[in-house]
Amino acid sequence: MKTKGKLRKILRRIALVIFIALVTLSLAAGLLTYIFEDDIKTMAVQEVNNNLQSKVVIKGADIHLTFFTTFPNVAIRFENFKIMETGSVSAVLAEVKTLDFEFSPLDFINKQYHISRIVLRDATIHLKIFENGTNNFDILKPDTAKKPIGPNVPLDIKLRSIRLKNVNLSY
Fold first, then answer.
1. Which residues contact 85 (CB under 8 A, 6 or more apart)?
2. DSSP 83
3. What is the rounded distance in angstroms from the CA atom of residue 6 to the CA atom of residue 50?
4. Would you say 138 and 86 are in contact if contact means Cβ atoms under 8 Å apart?
5. For residues 58 and 168, what is the distance between their CA atoms, to the nearest angstrom?
6. 26-29: long-range pairs with CB below 8 Å, 24+
7. What's the pLDDT tens digit per position in 71-94?
8. What pLDDT digit, counting tens, does each position of 2-16 carry?
9. Whole-angstrom Cα distance, residue 152 to residue 113?
10. Buried b (16+ CB within 10 A) or exposed e, 34-60
């Protein structure tokens, strides 16, 4: 009987330690997300503007830093936005409900964010090729400058996966 009581006591302590560790990690993740959210949102918007020829229509309130829905990763989440066709103010290339750029929570420590996964959810994309041979989906700016590589780059893309969920393409 004594061994059962001791075993229960040990299991309770282990469960309590695990529970406290999980609560502490969750609070730390929430605190880090809150502290760094504005800096990361600003960096993400700058990178989008630096790399796209097309206009992106999004409200600042629709850009979030999320941890719990993308666990174990952290994500910069863009919600409810449109990408316009290059050179157009009215023609919509894509309407997107959610776009996540995921990275490791350890990137907070180094302040160097390595996007490892992109998840696109609930989107409609309208692809066109015009009679003159041009298209509406060539939205990236030409990469003419050498980009720095190495540990001093604050944001880079090292994709391991791209996921498309409920994405409709029209061509």
1. 54, 91, 92, 93, 128, 136
2. E
3. 62
4. yes
5. 20
6. 26/68, 29/67, 29/68, 29/74, 29/105
7. 888 888 999 999 988 877 788 999
8. 677 788 888 899 989
9. 11
10. eebeeebbebbbebbeeeeebbbebee
